[in-house]
Amino acid sequence: MVDKYKTILITIxxxxxxxxxxxxxxxxxxxxxxxxSSEPTIVDALNRTVSLNKAPERIISLxxxxxxxxxxxxxxxxxxxxxxxxxxxxxxxxNNYCREHNISDVGGYWWNTIDIEKIISLNPDLILxxxxxxxxxxxxxxxxxxxVIYLHGGSSxxxxxxxxxxxxxxxxxxxxxxxxELKSNISLKIENAKKYxxxxxxxGKRVLIVVGFYNGIWVSGEQTYIDDLLNNIGLDxxxxxxxxSIASIEDIAxxxxxxxxxxxxxxxxxxxxxxxxxxxxKPIIILNSTETDIxxxxxxxxxxxxxxxxxxxxxxxxxx
Amino acid sequence: xxxxxxxxDNVKIVYKKGKIIAIKNANIVVKKGEILxxxxxxxxxxxxxxxxxxxxxxxxxxxxxxxxEVSHTPHKVIxxxxxxxxxxxxxxxxxxxxxxxxxxxxxxxxKGFFESEEDIKKALEVxxxxxxxxxxxxxxxxLSSGELRKVILAMALAREPRVILLDEPDAHLDMGxxxxxxxxxxxxGRRSIVIFTTHDILFAINTASKVVLLKDGEIIGYGTVxxxxxxxxLFKTYNARFKILLDPDTNKPVPIPFYx
Amino acid sequence: MFRKYVCFFTSLVIILLLIGMIYYVSLYYxxxxxxxxxxxxxxxxxxxxLIVALLSGLILGFTGSVLQSSLRNPLVDPYILGIGGGAxxxxxxxxxxxxxxxxxxxxxxASIGGLTALALTLVIAETIGGSDVAYVxxxxxxxxxxxxxxxxxxxxxxxxxxxxxxxxxxxxxxxVNVTPSRIPIMIWPSLVLVISYFIFSKPxxxxxxxxxxxxxxxxxxRFIRRIITILSGITASIVVMVSGIIGFIGLVxxxxxxxxxxxxxxxxxxxxxxxxxxxxxxxTDNFSRIILSSLVGEIPVGALASSFGSPFFLFLLIRRFRxxx
Lengths: 320, 260, 325
Hints:
The structure holds three protein chains of three kinds. Chain A is of the alpha/beta class.
């Protein structure tokens, strides 16, 4: 009996000691709002209110879609650092631009491969991060006194999310007009895509977008930005699941898509054959890496993605 | 204060919530100067009895080591006056050397975090007495079973306890080593109380001053060697028949088993 | 006999020197043309990383060796108690239930998960007898259960919350993301462990020989085992909470220590094991930070530690056991 009490007593002591240190840890919690005294203040994708002391002149982008937005809004001259994927992206000549203008590669895209030390040494005024991939770095940025704004980026689940990102960046640099222009461009392209679809009797077609073959067939389901895009073009998303999801070949057969688009990096015909998709006897469109990028980056190229889809569809199943 | 005696009063040992009764009712008195040998067939309860005296196993009844009632005395106090040496299951890779193991035996009596000069001296002495000094730096998992037995014995003696409990100290030993061990036990018996168990009747008879015969948890014989070595008792204990001869030189009874 | 003390002190000095050297060098290496106020920040970042790596290694090496002796099994490490799987499962469940997650709650939930798994292991082990084997079996059962559940939950998460695929990276061991506020939370457990070393190393020497043997020596092996399990589980859970799941260190540091000092005496093995853990982690963390980050980006520290530590470990193994085991 003495044993049991001794055990309990010692456990309590250990727990108290640990609790003391845990509470010290929580003392450093990041507050929801910090220092909103000075203008301008921006509300980011996570609903945080961030105050910038001045218009930022040294910025770091941590995601390719964000980098593309920065370029499209004409603010690339302020970049001093980008993530690895951006650093090697050929769209808009970003990779060349980075090398010519001494923009550093800070690692990433995933949070645990980002070089924090490099970011610190670059002394940025502002970091633009992706709320899905980089949320884990929130406290790190806070404790090392780095200002960060989170965008929807790869977590965008609708076209509005992407527009919201455009607005946020526009607010930072006070280029609302450029933002409007960009947004109307995108809207226009999507409208055009929709018209094209109607003209060529493609509207209402059931499209299945396959994004990967890892341990199964990954598809883009409902509540993704791709789903939103398809709906806005007047097409039907064949995937009857939510989010990015694995589907079996039986599910896909049941959904009965009219056409299957494969948007994945580095896929060869063997993989596709093994998945069983050809057995469904539906037209399969395989996008090359550039096209995949266009579709899979929820950024300024959304309009291009819309057009890409309808053109490819026309090529595959023809018109009226 | 010299240790006078060990008393077992109505001791009962059960396992698995009463399903297995190891010892039904033991009443034993061992006085200073006596060496008690416990013999019985496998599973008779010999080890349980020894473990109870050592305080390692739960029992009902009373066990007194001098003034101390074992189950009501803290283990640390008992450890200073008693040592129990049973079988050892040595883990590979993690095992200590012989000398280190013997030194652990001195933990109850050694002060300080590390060993003192005296600890090491006594440990080496014990190894020497048992003739295994050359094994001192060998790991326990590298020893033969006979060598291990001697090490176990050394560990029991290292802190010079007043009560020494040995579970089958002669197991795995060749004849010569058995005799050495028997001699050592008899020597120890002059200063300490020694209780041992064994399968070998001859070993028991030639080493102990008093003998307990155990069968299925019951004491069916308890007395001096002359009292015990009787045909009927031995038959009950072992379910084997013996011829009892008289050794002309020592006048001691010598049981010889029938192998037919 | 005295050879082991000689080996112990030599190794101790060498390891401490190595740690000291690596610490100092990595703090100030490559800081030439950086303005003052940034330099302070960078040094702060490096120092934080080093200290957390050091303490994590210390805790893992320590608890690894203590558990191996207490459970009489050379193949266990702190995760045998189920804390890794438990933390993972709890974290995944948290991300499954809540779409927007808070980091601090995340950390707290991870440790609660780990401790729950630990408690489960403990209770089951004690119920089936509290022996060394009981703990190992119970631990394996609990770990497997939670690992399996974690993987299943991950797939559920992905389908429900498309943006949450990053969760699989959450508990991968890494020091890239450590912040100064985490240092106090690691210091207390380390202190507790150091104190416990003085209390438990001698009983552990006895327990390795056997529970019965330890009992007649005056110790209470079941009680000690219980306390050690609780202590190791809690401190290792804190490492998981701060740095993620780092494999290898807890398992192999004790063995490297044993092979270097050529002894199994826990009074010597335990501290050296802790220091080897520290050394391994700060070396690999530095390697990742200084060399790899400019080449391929940082690589999680657990993988690196295994890659470097294993050849060294195998070399020691062959040298010691050639022809035996």
